[in-house]
What we know:
Elements: H1 2-19, H2 24-38, H3 43-77, H4 80-92, H5 97-109, H6 114-132, H7 136-153, H8 158-166, H9 171-194, H10 221-244, H11 252-259, H12 261-277, H13 284-318, H14 320-329, H15 335-350, H16 353-364, H17 366-369, H18 374-384, H19 394-403, H20 407-436
Helix pairs in contact: 1-2, 2-3, 2-13, 3-8, 3-12, 3-13, 4-5, 4-10, 5-6, 5-7, 6-7, 7-9, 7-20, 8-13, 8-16, 8-18, 9-10, 9-18, 9-20, 10-11, 10-12, 13-16, 15-16, 15-18, 15-20, 16-18, 18-20
Keywords: Cell membrane, Membrane, Transmembrane, Transmembrane helix, Transport
Family: Belongs to the GntP permease family.
Protein name: Gluconate transporter
Amino acid sequence: MTLLIIFSCIVLLIVLISLLKINAFLAFLIVSVIAGLSLGISAGQVTTEIQIGIGKMFGDLSIIVVCGAMLGKLTADSGAAQRIASGMMKVFGPKYIIWALVVTGFIIGIPLFYNVGFVLVMPLIFSVSYRFNFPPVYIGVPMLASLSVTHGFLPPHPSPVGLIRALHADIGTTMLYGIIVAIPTVIIAGPIFAKTLRNMKSTSIKTFESIDLPEDKLPSLFNSIFSALLPVILIAITTLLLRFVPADHVAMPLLQFFGDPAVVMILSLFVATFTLGIAQQIDIKKIMNTYGESVKDIAMLLLIMSGAGALKQILQTTGADKEIGSMLEGLPAHPLFVAWTIASIIRVCVGSATVAGLTAANIVEPFVVAGVDPNLLVLAVGAGSLMFSHVNDGGFWLFKEYFNLGIKDTIKSWSMMETIVAIVGIMAVMILNIIIH
């Protein structure tokens, strides 16, 4: 009976979001109340459990996600992302222009939220297309594949961070595995797949063209890359030190403090405020306005993630998560593949990668107790959450409108690219699992 109730609640969540167009946060609240009452929690206790779940998830994620949004916004507004793009073009040259776009997309994709990164790179894609006489879609897909992979696999993006918290993974290890998985995924979904799109015609729309900052106003290439990747650098360093320094060493408490993801993001933002802001003679008031604007962009995203935390709390309080675990353990498939499949189905139904990932995490969390590597489980769910973007996903329409394509060509290019990311991603995760374990 418990499993039937849970299944019905997941179906209801999908219906509310995809068919009735209910806001995802409200949908999570509605489903959490229904699930709690149906699973035997008293009416007076249901709201308490929901508040606890929202508080836990919000408390875990708010610092990381908000600081990540601020860093990403500053990277864009200061011209650092523009400098990285132009610098990579010079480093790789015309012969390897596709790879320049892939590397650029990967670097600026780490600090920038997907929609911001998407809008930011489009003028570059079309300018390269005109300059070297390449079809825009052929040029654009490799770069956008990089953005998509960083969005789905790597912290400090909201979905990976939420999955890491939900599945009790280690952020440093997950980031290391994520980069390993990302490399073949980007290559296959980007430059290799793009070769099939050389004849797809597309034209830019003047409305979407942005104005670049003058060269003398941009930070240096080193400063831009260093500031954008500082969270990755700090997490990598502290993760390595924590593994090699003895547990009883006098420096261990200090390492644990500086290795905390929230502290890493605060330090990274503090450094970037100086390197990309004050050092570039940007007024502190303008920097703070930039930070304020960035929070507006992710406020609803934080609420949606907190709503997923409410449903997770209901499942844990009622013991439903353990029943789910018992059921999934009996399936004739590897747990990582099962997790990927669940996330893929939810993604195709609801459109949102974040909602798909966090909903799937609530279902597959018992796998961690059963001995599945939580870091690989995060990546398996993350890969599934990117499966086949179509008309119910905002990214689909962004791609369609910016490249001025029809529905059919958008599916042949964008939707197929996202599908390849999901499939190659889970294949890489499974191979990595064999190597590690």
